[in-house]
Design goal:
The chain is α/β, with parallel strands linked by helices and 347 residues long. It is 27% helix and 24% strand. It is built from 13 helices and 15 strands. Strands 3, 4, 5, 6, 7, 14 and 15 form a 7-stranded mixed beta sheet that branches. A 6-stranded parallel beta sheet has the order 10-9-8-11-12-13, sandwiched between helices. A two-stranded antiparallel sheet has the order 1-2. Helix 9 links the parallel strand 11 and strand 12. Helix 5 packs across helix 6 and helix 8 packs parallel to helix 9. The longest helix has 11 residues.
Length: 347
């Protein structure tokens, strides 16, 4: 089969690889029909995720058709159309029983495209298939469902839920990429009074405005803190969501959060950042970090099917899987290409 393979920082290739095979009785082999590229994949290519070994097939999102199942798989059969979760979980260990699937003690968690081969390929092996796949309802657009593999549950769980957004809150999302926009779409579930999106890309800021942002702030000149404080009457925001993974964006969140507020970190940080406890220690600030657990996937799927959540608007580019290198170029040059999410199709 053909797959996108990581060969060390800054190196990738679309090449022939052996088809995956069943390893454990709980495995399934899924033929990918649609997948996508995540900002985390770009972090991997920068060398920010040292757990990813050279030779790894990247990707942790997608939908497809089950081609084989192991002997203990009971929820899925050959021919089923499925959504692949970015998090694999056994469903039985102590952490899984509390809903912390990202830290599955049986070898699950974020392993696809990280510790085992991922979804940017014609086929993929899915461990713990009964707990790591979701049936696709008939008639639902598969492109939409790709957004449910990772970015929507990540934005919702790591940003909205961890930030404890409630009606009437003032919210700032620092980073208007796909994850930040996913947080914006799902934050609206809780009726905050205002949502401010900060970025340096006018295209993403325009998209944020279309998706329901109250205010947009371009930080190209480094004046985001002053502008956000002015928009909030110098009070700051109740919830500051960091959706990039850089020291500068984390610093903005620390500077704009109000007393008693929340800083919810979503971004993947490849380097240390400074925590300004000398300013925050007395301000009753809650700081959260987490890896998505995908406990919200079923709820978000129902919202998509009901038309209450419309993530199609996040898709800006489409490529056949054979053009995955071009898709990476487009996604990595998001500002110039006006790119949000790209869909890779394997027909």
């Amino acid at each position: 089969m053909r797959a996108l393979v990581y060969h060390g920082p800054g190196k990738k290739a679309f090449e022939e690889r052996p088809d995956p095979v069943l390893v454990d009785a709980s495995d399934a082999i899924v033929r990918i029909t649609r997948t996508t590229i995540c900002g985390t994949d770009l972090h991997i290519l920068k060398g920010d995720v040292p757990t990813v070994a050279e030779g790894r097939i990247l990707g942790h999102e997608g939908v497809g058709i089950v081609e084989q199942v192991g002997g203990s798989v009971t929820n899925f059969a050959v021919g089923d159309h499925v959504l692949i979760s970015c998090i694999s979980s056994c469903g039985r260990c102590a952490n899984c029983r509390t809903g912390m699937y990202s830290h599955c003690e049986s070898g699950g968690g974020w392993i696809l495209g990280n510790l085992i081969d991922g979804t940017q390929a014609e086929r993929v092996r899915i461990p713990f298939a009964d707990h790591s796949l979701y049936p696709i309802p008939a008639g639902v657009d598969e492109e939409v469902l790709v957004m449910l593999s990772d970015i929507l549950p990540t934005g919702f769980e790591c940003g909205v839920l961890s930030g404890a957004i409630k009606p009437g809150d003032s919210v700032a999302i620092v980073g208007g990429g796909p994850i930040g926009l996913a947080a914006l779409l799902t934050a609206r579930f809780y009726s905050p009074a205002e949502i401010i999106v900060v970025d340096v890309d006018d295209n993403r800021l325009e998209a944020a405005k279309r998706f329901g942002a109250t205010w947009i702030v371009n930080n190209s000149d480094g004046q985001a803190v002053e502008r956000v404080m002015a928009l909030t009457g110098n009070r700051g925001v109740d919830v500051a969501i960091e959706a990039i993974g850089q020291a500068a964006t984390f610093d903005i969140c620390q500077a704009i959060v109000t007393a008693g507020g929340h800083i919810a970190n979503i971004g993947v940080h490849g380097k240390p950042v400074q925590l300004n406890l000398d300013k925050l220690w007395s301000h009753n600030i809650t700081l959260t970090t987490r890896l998505v657990d995908t406990v919200s996937t079923r709820m978000l799927l129902k919202s998509v099917v009901a038309g209450k959540l419309q993530p199609t608007q996040l898709i800006t580019h489409r490529f056949p899987l054979a053009q995955v290198l071009k898709a990476y170029d487009t996604f990595s040059q998001a500002k110039e290409e006006r790119a949000l999410k790209v869909i890779l199709t394997n027909e």
